[in-house]
Amino acid sequence: MISSVITIARPKSDSATVAAVDLARAALVEEVGAADVGDHLGHVVEGERVVTHLFACLRPGYVGWQWSVTVARASRSKDVTVDEIVLVPGDAAIVAPPWVPYRERIKPGDLSPGDLLPVDDDDPRLVPTYLFGDDPLDADDKAQIRAVAQDLGLGRVRTLGPEGRDLAAQRWYDGDGGPEAPIARSAPDHCSTCGFLVRIAGPLSELFGVCANGDANDDGRIVSFDHGCGAHSEVRLAKKHEPPPPPVPVFDTLTVDEVEILS
Hints:
The chain is α+β, with helices and mostly antiparallel strands. The protein has helices at 15-18, 21-32, 102-105, 129-132, 141-153, 162-174, 182-185, 256-262, and strands at residues 37-47, 50-57, 65-73, 80-89, 126-128, 158-160, 197-199, 208-211, 222-224. This is DUF3027 domain-containing protein. Pfam families: DUF3027.
């Protein structure tokens, strides 16, 4: 087997375009004004007889940015011309963070009444109900067929697929209703043994339930079985934490006359 190594030739430096610093500066000053142009920072060979000269930018608010002036020389010509002038960020420049689409920036709790958040037609979390049904783990084939038929006639067009369920489970498990929440770490026991845990149906029921304790922070929310809080149904106070018993009642036999005598 014969292997070959491909080498890419770098463009040669052209002395005329490299030396055209004054030409590049003059064109830059004419374009943006002398007050915004700083020292010459060097040059970059872009191609054959094409060089970009870099100048410091002194414009307020653009610390670390550079003026880029590209010059070129035609073949067999002695004249160097200016191709373009642009402002580019340097290594120490302050630049805006990468743009994130609005749909990806929305977090739980951002929606207000009346806001609409459409779901993409090809959302990987959802699949057609007639292909997947509501509970792929249901061992009763007839029950599965009935659920699919109901959705086809009256119910939903799409339902959660495996990817959507996995994403939801991971999000819930890593969130405030999971085992790593601060309140769960100090809990006396897990939700799996709490009488206020309401079971749910489907594959997610193997790991999650709903809290029904009106005194708990997670009331009405999804919690993992290994989550927990201080409002567990079986929690009991230790004797040292119980309130002290009231004092023994004393029957007061003093009369008004006796009180006057004592005073």
